Amino acid sequence: MNTIRVVRGVGRAETRMASYDAALAAANIHNYNLVSVSSVIPAAATVKDVKTASDLGPAGGRLTVVEARATTGGVGTVSAGLGWATGPGPGLFYEVAGEDPAAVRRRVEAGLETGRGLREWTFDDETVAVVTADADGGGYTTAVVVAVYGEAESIL
């Protein structure tokens, strides 16, 4: 588990959960059981922004993730933002959901700034990924940005 992949997707469907599943399918992580963790990046990890995951192992496996997710059943816009700050040691993720992509980006950047200030670590790089989707009110729309730690592990 030295690679953390950042993937993203948008999904639309008749139910909230189905739109979420469709967004995960767009990111190619829909066949796994996602286990959310807080937002610390291990020192030995490399973060790669890959947009869509390659095969991460057998269906039904467990994936450790940090996830930004926004869903609406109305008309408008949804935005999910995930930012990461890295350096020679540990790093941080920060996730935000909202309607306005610029506001989501600002909140991610502010969260990373606060997180950096709470730690005596060195941070050399910062990246923010925001996914935005327009919703027409015909069902549900979900936007996700997900950091996937390593590959799927057996859940049994």
TrEMBL record:
GO molecular function annotations of the record: arginine decarboxylase activity
This enzyme's EC code(s): 4.1.1.19
One GO term of the biological process aspect: L-arginine catabolic process
SUPFAM superfamilies in alphabetical order: Pyruvoyl-dependent histidine and arginine decarboxylases
Cofactor dependence: pyruvate
This protein's record includes keyword Lyase: yes
Catalytic activities: L-arginine + H(+) = agmatine + CO2
Claim: Lyase is one of the keywords in the record: yes
Transmembrane intervals: none
InterPro entries documented for this protein: Pyr-dep_his/arg-deCO2ase (IPR016104), Pyr-dep_his/arg-deCO2ase_sand (IPR016105), Pyruvoyl-dep_arg_deCO2ase (IPR002724)
Pfam family, one: PvlArgDC
Keywords: Decarboxylase, Lyase, Pyruvate
Gene3D superfamilies (UniProt xref): Pyruvoyl-Dependent Histidine Decarboxylase, subunit B
Cleaved signal peptide residues: none
Top-level class of the enzyme under EC nomenclature: lyase
Family: Belongs to the PdaD family.
Protein's name in the database: arginine decarboxylase
